[in-house]
Amino acid sequence: MGSSGLPILLKFITENYPGGEIVAAHLNKTTQPSYGHFLKRDETTWPEYWSVDVPSRIHTCYTGIASYFMKRLAGIRPDPEHPGFQTFLIEPVIVSGLGFAAGETQSPYGRISSRWELSDSGLELVVTIPPNSQAMLSLPMLDTPVSEFTIREGGTTIWQNDTPASSLPDGITFSHRTGEQGADRRIVWQVRSGSYRFSLNLLGRPQQSKWIPEQEAGEPDLLKD
After folding, report:
1. 51: which of 73, 81, 118, 122 lies 20 to 30 Å off by Cα?
2. Global pTM value
3. Does 28 map to a domain?
4. Helices in the chain by DSSP H: which ranges?
């Protein structure tokens, strides 16, 4: 498809498909055509073709994948209705086989970050919203019935029994629910500037966290802008 077509295709998939499984499959597989095939072959630059058996080794054909890590896995995206990042989206996608993702980027208002981790008890998402801006944060329901989980921000329950709490922490407003099934099912919150820790807790599961603190991570973030 080449340097003209592939970045456009990846941009279209990243911005128009709610789930991330299509791209994730080609990141993880190790046979061509896939990015995993490049890694298996110890490539350090982008070959001209998926087959890698070509003399030309430095091309921009496959660089469009970078936006998938930021816009889908970390979930940091511009709001098409409010350009300029004073309002933006945080919509992380949970894909099969991935238990943790993190990313950050600089906006005109400061640093935006998003870090999530799965555990047996649910999902934890930590975000930073810079001053004088706000995010529409879409928390995945993990394809779980709404009666089978609660949501907390810090130590405060903000969602229980299929409804938002009557009193919410400063900076957080319930917006709406989206989707009917799978990755489309989300609970959307309007979140003003600050740092927040959301946790979706599956009922009947022990509340535990495998959270990796930002300064104690065993390996560097791979999704940094």
Report:
1. 73
2. 0.82
3. yes
4. 2-16, 21-28, 35-40, 66-68
